[in-house]
């Protein structure tokens, strides 16, 4: 690991700490002035490499951009910003890391996307779900929309259950 200030390659680890969630290690490093470095300090974070197991059986390193490329397509023409997409990518990666597994089947990456995407934009969610779950007919869309509606109409308090209008 070279020094980010002077590019000296002879840097030293001062201290290593496991981060709170246990999924990463922080190292405090120094670029020692006594061996020709600049004397500055910096921190590195070491994380487990997430691997995606594809349906073909091949594996590839998890890449946030690639993971949300399908979401990006589904959001075309929708009021979803790049910031929100980046945030969703972060949420998905966090959720996958929290699972603690190093190798994640591709369909689980898709599953991890569905929840946060539904919060973000229901139309984009339906588009993404139609591809991901291989919707075959308009009925599949109607079923999914019915679920969305039903969950949106869940009353906030029990009182609303008994005072619902009849007509
Ligand atoms: Zn340096």
UniProtKB/TrEMBL annotation:
Statement: the UniProt record of this protein carries the keyword Iron: no
All residue ranges annotated as the ATP-cone domain in the record: 50-140
InterPro entries: ATP-cone_dom (IPR005144), NrdR-like_N (IPR055173), RNR_NrdR-like (IPR003796)
Molecular function GO terms recorded: ATP binding; DNA binding; zinc ion binding
Record flagged with keyword Kinase: no
Family: Belongs to the NrdR family.
Protein known as: Transcriptional repressor NrdR
Species: Nocardioides szechwanensis
